[in-house]
Design brief:
100 residues, OB fold (Dihydrolipoamide Acetyltransferase, E2P), 2 helices
């Protein structure tokens, strides 16, 4: 009886894991836009080190929100959130950093 109960619990846990989305791994990122591909909702950003990526590098991220994408142009410096649980990573809550 215990084996059946254990199997039932494992089956229920597996079923729940399949329907409950994983928690997003969101970090704050600061960087400079290197290129914009508006047709594909993608930008290349050269970002500073942050929790999920402890070294500065240039990478492609998706910007699904049209309002966020419209703010971006080559050379823009931004602060934003990046969801590292997706592939490619997703940029959101984009704020332009004023030039000094």
């Amino acid at each position: 009886m215990t084996v059946r109960l254990g199997a039932a619990v494992l089956s229920l846990a597996a079923a729940l894991a399949a329907v409950v989305p994983a928690a997003a791994a969101t970090s704050h990122v600061h960087g400079k836009i290197v290129a914009v591909d508006a047709a594909h909702h993608e930008v290349q950003i050269h970002h500073d080190p942050f929790a999920a990526m402890p070294m500065a590098m240039t990478m492609v991220v998706v910007v699904p929100n049209p309002a966020d994408l419209a703010k971006l142009h080559k050379g823009a410096v931004v602060d934003a959130d990046v969801d590292t649980s997706k592939d490619p990573w997703v940029l959101s809550h984009v704020k332009l950093v004023p030039s000094k």
